[in-house]
Design a protein that fits this description.
Order of helices and strands: HHHHHHH
Strand content: under 5%
Length: about 180
């Protein structure tokens, strides 16, 4: 299970890294922000596909809920760890405050609109908090968020993919499904 979770987690992690590249680009090009959202919505379908592939090709078509959920969590953890490395590299060496400055400019524009005066203090406090974050803080926060949502996302995926063994058959993969 670990080997396949790492392989599929690597594929998903590369997908997440490419998807993450759309965030700073999407700040200036709205189409890329929309593309980011659409690709984010594809993540559960990828998890379902990889788990079903694992069930059918490795487990002989039989996968219990806990096995499927464990596989999902491990796969998503591998993807999240790989993506965390990319997040750190981006915020440490590439960003240079671009995301924060763009958010600050956008929020300054929003604060000048009528009715936003009451929220000015909260917005400024949020910006100062964001400015104080180090690349490690940002990476750990994003890693924690990814892991939390992926653990939850594994539950419906496992429910959809699980398939119990037919009555009267031994549990586990058959000899012709075992790969050496």
């Amino acid at each position: 299970m670990q080997q396949y979770a790492m392989i599929f987690g690597t594929y998903m992690g590369i997908f997440w890294i490419l998807k993450f590249a759309l965030i700073p680009l999407g700040l200036t090009h709205p189409f890329l922000s929309l593309l980011f959202i659409c690709l984010t919505l594809c993540v559960p379908f990828m998890g379902y596909y990889y788990t079903r592939l694992y069930r059918d090709r490795v487990c002989g078509g039989v996968l219990t809920f806990m096995h499927a959920w464990s596989f999902n969590v491990l796969m998503y953890m591998c993807a999240a760890l790989l993506t965390a490395i990319a997040h750190y590299v981006y915020f440490r060496y590439i960003d240079g405050g671009y995301l924060l400055d763009t958010c600050r400019d956008t929020l300054q524009t929003l604060m000048s609109t009528p009715g936003m005066e009451a929220n000015t203090e909260q917005i400024e406090q949020a910006l100062s908090t964001m400015a104080g974050l180090t690349p490690v803080d940002i990476m750990l926060n994003m890693l924690q968020t990814n892991v939390f949502f992926c653990v939850l996302l594994g539950i419906p995926t496992a429910l959809l993919v699980m398939r119990n063994k037919p009555k009267g058959t031994p549990y586990g993969p058959t000899d012709n499904n075992i790969q050496s």
